[in-house]
Amino acid sequence: MRIPNINQTGVPGAEQISLGAISSAAQAEMRTTQALTQVVDDYQVMSNKAEAVAQYGQNYQSSLMALDSAYDEMVNQPHFDQDNNPTYRDISKRWNAFSMKHVSKTLNNFTNKTASSKYQTDVSAYLRGKASDIRGVARTRQVEYANGVLASQILSYSKLPNGNEMIQAAIEQQVKIGFMTPEEGVNQLQGHLETHASTQLTMSIQGSNSDSDIAAIRMSLLNNNNPYLSLSAVQGAFTSLTQRENRLDKDFDDEQTNTYVDTLTKIVMGDITDEGEIDLLLAGNQITPAHYANLNQRLVEEIKGPEVDDWSEYSLIKLNVWDYTAADILNNEMLTRDSRIKLLADLAKWNDDQDTDLDWVATQAGREATRRIKAAFPVASKQFNPFGAASAEADAALTKLYDAVIALPVGKRTTSVIDLANQIIADKSNNKPSSSTSGPATIQEIVDKYPPGADRNKALKDFEAKNLIKPDSQDYIRTVQNDIMSLAKELGVIV
After folding, report:
1. C-alpha–C-alpha distance, residues 210 and 207, integer Å
2. How far is residue 132's CA from residue 122's CA, in Å, rounded to a whole number?
3. Which of 385, 422, 379, 380 is nearest to 400 (CA)?
4. How far is 437 from 279, CA to CA, in rounded Å?
């Protein structure tokens, strides 16, 4: 009998697998091999994709960080270089050069073509946006610079008699190149021509040196035919003319007084002994008739003069020289000529010291204090500042410095200004109000701040000296009350 699917041979007991079974096994093995090949291929594809993603992400993000940083640095750099030339002119060129160099260098990092292609597409889009932005920055700064230059030009032109023509030409040029619309040009021209007319009028008033000059200006205003000279400017000019007239009168009086004092000094020192010199001064209207009479009298009396000083008089003037004028000292018949000359020198020295202290801003200490404050509160680099203006913080600090210095008594201003500036800087850095104007503002504050004793007494004396007032007795009521409370505590009456 034959067993199905089994080939029997002539060898007893031997059995063989059918060809069908062999074929099925071979096909199964082939399918397994194909499956493994597919897996390998799929893995390779995924591996390439993963590598592309990784290369793209790493390089693109690094580029964004580097490019954004370079862009921010360029747009936030000072608007002017060390030679005061604007930096906007080549900013687009510098950005393009940097970005292209960076992109070219980055492309060398890619080994995956897909990632490289994707990077080029996206970074190109990014750079197109940044290029547009930086052109906008350059344009804005160009307009700002042009406006700054225009403002400077117009300020200069306003001081020139024919400046109106120059102002018109400058504005027309701005309109022509597109930095200003025609409407803006018309409005600005009107305003600047009004400023020019007002400035010229002010300069003519300031330059007047006689009554005839002032009269001529008044007449021109009454017959005004300048269309750009506003009514308010004319009204202000009449007020300024009156002030100028008073100023000239005072200056003339001061000149006559100075001539009188100089002549009196020469008489005292023996340099003038002839009445003829005094006559010439009166004829030239250099002294008043009253001065003339006094000088002639002094010329006679000086010859005999006192032989010795009245010591009490000399001591009084010596200790309070600031309360006397030069004429007071020179005309004092209780003092010898030598003593009057010495006291006059003392007065001159005191006046020089006072002038220096009153003009503390122009002193070396005042200039240094101003420099320190401007250095401590600089203008932000991105702010348009072609002419070196101080920052808003510096302006506020300088105002505080001025108020603090001016509150000090004359004699302490120049010596204190740098310390006050340092205090204002320190207070601002610590975000606390400035205490540069040290000391209580009222008697009550002194009483509240200081216990009875030397510190309170000193504070009260300083208050009196600083404010040049003697407090009323009522101001000390609280002081007495506090003293009683302190005594009661010391005695143990109250705790």
Report:
1. 9
2. 16
3. 422
4. 54
Q: Please state, as a whole number, how many other Cβ atoms lie within 10 Å of the Cβ of residue 171.
A: 22
Separation between Cα atoms, residue 416 and residue 439, nearest integer Å: 14
Give the type of residue at 125.
A
Distance set, CA 211 to CA 187, 200, 247 (Å): 38, 19, 11
> How many whole angstroms separate alpha carbon 341 and alpha carbon 337?
6
**Which residues lie across from 466 on neighbouring strands?**
none
Residue type, 360: W
pLDDT in tens, 184-208: 888 888 888 888 888 888 899 988 8
Mean pLDDT calculated for residue range 6-32: 55
Residues 6+ apart with CB under 8 A from 192: 154, 158, 167, 171
Q: What is the mean pLDDT of the chain?
A: 77
Q: Helix crossing, 231-268 with 182-206: angle to 10°?
A: 30
Length of the chain: 495
- In one letter, which amino acid is 1? M
List 118's β-bridge partners, or say none: none
Q: Please give the Cα distance from 445 to 465 (Å, whole number).
A: 16
Number of helices followed by number of strands (H, E) in the chain: 18, 2
